[in-house]
Design goal:
Blueprint lengths: L4 E6 L2 E6 L2 E6 L2 E8 L2 E2 L5 E10 L4 E8 L5 E2 L4 E2 L3 E10 L2 H6 L1 E11 L6 E12 L8 E8 L2 E2 L5 E10 L5 E8 L17 E9 L2 H6 L1 E12 L7 E9 L5 E8 L11 E8 L26
């Protein structure tokens, strides 16, 4: 569809100009070329051209229809009876060069006999389509980590961190993070401008079932609304595993191993060994026959 059109009669020819096309036709032989769509946003996009030849002189025949950008033009017939139109179509696929140029201009030429008796006519029409950049595409990442990375017992608190980074060119708003093992994930803000990141956090307390299973796996999912375009949720999953369990041994010895009279002093030694994979603190040793047991340290 032309946005505006001016028709001027010059001798036996008609000059037609518009915002998108320029057509030249001889009297009784009109030609109109249109493109759909009228803009393109990438290389490899198909543009369909429609060519309408109208004969107002007499019963006529189309002998040729060419376009300098379209290899093949399809017409249902070559016959154009008096006061009727013939509609043909062709397709052009945009290229990288077209994107760089910012437009595609091509010219079509129709030739034929307007009255089947030597009324030879030609007509041309030039159409221009312009490049329109696609809207900026939003993108982001979510990286989740656990501290500590292993657990030892039920009831242990695991702190999860969620780093969200806006890797796209537009802002992301209404950001929320959910975790299938954590009731509440807290974030310092709900929006990120392009290139910005933030760290959210949540805490999980291990259970007896986690100890029995030997691991805890949970998945986080971030959702948000981009300033333009669309944005899919981003997810990340972390697994923490049951670490070494605490264990230790106590070996008690007496010196001497026998006694012969009342009032004899027996010295006892208590050897404690940490045989597990973690530190043991606040160690205290008690003996039901000894008033006080002294240890050189309270940690192993």
């Amino acid at each position: 569809m032309h946005l505006s059109r001016i028709v001027a009669v010059v001798g036996m020819s008609i000059l037609v100009t518009s915002a998108a096309t320029t057509a030249v036709a001889q009297e009784g032989w009109a030609f109109d070329k249109t493109a759909s769509p009228t803009t393109f946003s990438a290389a490899g996009q198909s543009i369909t051209y429609t060519y309408v030849i109208t004969n107002t002189r007499g019963d006529g025949t189309l002998s040729s229809l060419t376009d300098d950008k379209v290899a093949t033009i399809n017409c249902p017939t070559t016959s154009i009876p008096f006061n009727t139109s013939l509609t043909c179509t062709g397709t052009y696929v945009t290229t990288v060069a077209d994107v760089v140029a910012g437009f595609v201009t091509n010219t079509a030429t129709a030739a034929g006999d307007a009255c089947n008796d030597g009324c030879l006519r030609t007509a041309t029409d030039t159409a221009t389509i312009t490049y329109s950049a696609p809207p900026a595409s939003a993108s982001w990442t979510l990286r989740k980590s656990a501290n500590p990375a292993t657990f030892a017992v039920a009831g242990q608190a695991i702190v999860y961190s969620y780093v969200i980074t806006n890797t796209g060119p537009v802002a992301i708003r209404a950001i929320a993070v959910a975790d299938d093992r954590i009731a509440t994930v807290s974030c310092p803000q709900t929006a990120l401008v392009a290139g910005e990141d933030m760290t959210c956090s949540g805490t999980y307390v291990t259970t007896a079932a986690d100890v029995a299973a030997g691991s805890v796996t949970n998945t986080a999912r971030a959702t948000g609304t981009p300033a333009s375009g669309t944005l899919s949720p981003t997810t990340d999953q972390v697994t923490i595993r049951l670490g070494s369990q605490p264990s230790w041994t106590l070996t008690k010895t007496a010196d001497p191993l026998t006694y012969s009279a009342a009032g004899e002093v027996i010295d006892y030694s208590y050897a404690l060994s940490n045989t597990g994979g973690m530190e043991i603190r606040r160690i205290v040793v008690r003996d039901d026959r000894v008033a006080a047991v002294t240890c050189p340290d309270t940690t192993l």
